[in-house]
Amino acid sequence: MSGIFRPGIYRLLSSSLQVKLTPCRGLADIPTTLSSLPTIARNYVKEKANICQPDDVYLCDGSEEENKRFLEIMRRAGIAKPLRKMDNCWLVRTDPADVARVESKTVISTSDKRETVPVPKEGVKGQLGNWLSPAELENALRDRFPGCMEGRTMYIIPFSMGPVGGPISKVGIQVTDSPYVVASMRIMTRMGKDALGAIQGDNFVKCLHSVGLPFSGVSKPLVQNWPCNPSKILISHIPDRNEIASFGSGYGGNSLLGKKCFALRLGSILAKREGWLAEHMLILGITNPQGKKKYVAAAFPSACGKTNLAMMQPTLPGYKVECVGDDIAWMKFDSEGVLRAINPEAGFFGVAPGTCSHTNPNAMKTIQRNTIFTNVAETDDGGVFWEGLEKEVDTSVGVTSWKGEMWTPYNRILAAHPNSRFCAPASQCPSMDPDWESPAGVPISAIIFGGRRPAGVPLVFEANNWRHGVFLGAAMRSEATAAAEHNTKVIMHDPFAMRPFFGYNFADYIDHWLSFDEKPGLQLPKIFHVNWFRKGEDGKFMWPGFGENCRVLDWICRRVDNEDCAVDSPIGRLPKPNALNLEGLDSPVNVDALFSVPVDFWLNECKELETYFSSQLNRDLPPPVAEELRHLGERLQQNA
Ligand code: OXD
Ligand code: MN
């Protein structure tokens, strides 16, 4: 996949697509060719086709056969390369200018700014989302979309988030000019005919996506054959119209619009309107040796190990962990007051570096077939490689980095981009829960918040009650990762792991969470906070993590059953001495250090939170959160 300029090939493929996929030819045909689309959906597609001016329009049916043709098209265009050592696996490399979510260019447009973002203290820049007025957005869209698909095919993707027709599921239509997006959406969502059947009237979310580079606009060679337009990236959400419009990036959360844009940003707005929760959470089931099973949902910021935890192989004998989802949970209280969760996605878009047979054996098994890899390195014998696989892959055969350079363990370049990904069907994961596709969802007994905290934050503690738990979510902080454009190693505030994904004012979001406390008859899950990443004075992690985290889940489940295995502390309830099962750990851990609550550190944390809340939420800060913070400070002072 060299970086040569090959517009001819794109043109050829575009026209071969026309023949091979038998789309409508010319916009005049749209009404008949797309006759299987209900009227409102057809009008939406027509409107966008008229603006974007693609050469042709193709309605995806989601079939295996169609998918094969898309992959072949991408192979011939030099966008994707089959990995011959693996079974139907493909390697895609992007332009290095398009490798992660772009939070600074992600906006929500409402007529009332306050609906979308809190008003920060004067002179402070808000960090809780970007708002754009409808007029500004209109201008920005007008500046980008007209003619943007010239020379390309517009693909129409009907999709369902969650099992098609399920009571918690929702449908969408994404139009895109990227075959990579089509192939990835087919893995990540239920895409095609069945989803189309569930679209009625205007019950669907409207998703428009373009890589933002019409053929006439291609003036210099594409980098790694990856069309994009980084300087014009805009990922916009229009809640009033249930619409998303994304321009300029083909990568991950910027372009697979079912994921962050729909399932989290618009999802959180729909959830608020309709009385449920759309959260950046994994869902897993854990069964103890007595056969008692519980489901938990856990929110960690991007690239903090949600996938590893969701697919964990427990080290404690007799325990089983099964995966429902690794990134997003849609949760709704049922008529019995039980919180039920579905995974709205159908695949995993996981961070590759660090994934290996030690950290996540189930992921390694999942990605051996039918997987699209993006920005990983390739071995000369047709396999994949990334940082973390040094002990498992024979790199003596030769490795080509994600940028197409020759890689060796000694030449100090990264083999894979830190945010390189695998995109694989969830159904291939050996530890999928038997109920992972249950339309009604699985019952949630505990909610866990967590982040990467190198200092001060114990391995696990329990919130004193729902309100304190909501405070813990609001107070979440974590070291930044490569999933977005921030510098790593900075400890960032990431409330509820939703900072990049709030669809509406964070203060209203907190109120929404708090409101469940007042509703009668709800079985509110217990709330916990975990930190696998605490480091000792030697700079090494104090806790082995990965499969050993089942010990923490075991304690959490026992607390859900009200076992007397917790003791109060100023920050919440900690495991009683010896309550955490440490039997059979490979090497001893320093339990005292792991669970210490350094008062100075926490008083400082209180100050930091106070500054954050008062500068970012200012007058919008819900009083119960301010009160929880005050109580925390008082409890710490009593222990000082
Ligand atoms: C993701 C993210 O891709 O959170 O899941 O960035
Ligand atoms: Mn995520």
From TrEMBL:
Keywords from the named record: Decarboxylase, GTP-binding, Lyase, Manganese, Metal-binding, Nucleotide-binding
Gene3D superfamilies documented for this protein: 3.90.228.20, Phosphoenolpyruvate Carboxykinase, domain 1, Phosphoenolpyruvate Carboxykinase, domain 2
EC top class, as a word: lyase
Gene Ontology terms describing biological process: cellular response to glucose stimulus; gluconeogenesis; glycerol biosynthetic process from pyruvate; oxaloacetate metabolic process; propionate catabolic process; response to lipid; response to starvation
GO cellular component: cytosol
Listed PROSITE patterns: PEPCK_GTP
GO molecular function, a single term: phosphoenolpyruvate carboxykinase (GTP) activity
Stretches assigned to the Phosphoenolpyruvate carboxykinase GTP-utilising N-terminal domain: 43-271
EC number of the protein: 4.1.1.32
Cofactor requirements of the protein: Mn(2+)
Pfam families per UniProt: PEPCK_GTP, PEPCK_N
InterPro entries xrefs: PEP_carboxykin_GTP_CS, PEP_carboxykinase_C, PEP_carboxykinase_GTP, PEP_carboxykinase_GTP_C, PEP_carboxykinase_GTP_N, PEP_carboxykinase_N
Domain Phosphoenolpyruvate carboxykinase C-terminal P-loop: 276-634
Superkingdom of origin: Eukaryota
PANTHER family tied to this protein: PHOSPHOENOLPYRUVATE CARBOXYKINASE, PHOSPHOENOLPYRUVATE CARBOXYKINASE [GTP]-RELATED
Subunit composition and interactions: Monomer.
Protein family: Belongs to the phosphoenolpyruvate carboxykinase [GTP] family.
Protein name: phosphoenolpyruvate carboxykinase (GTP)
Species of provenance: Macrostomum lignano
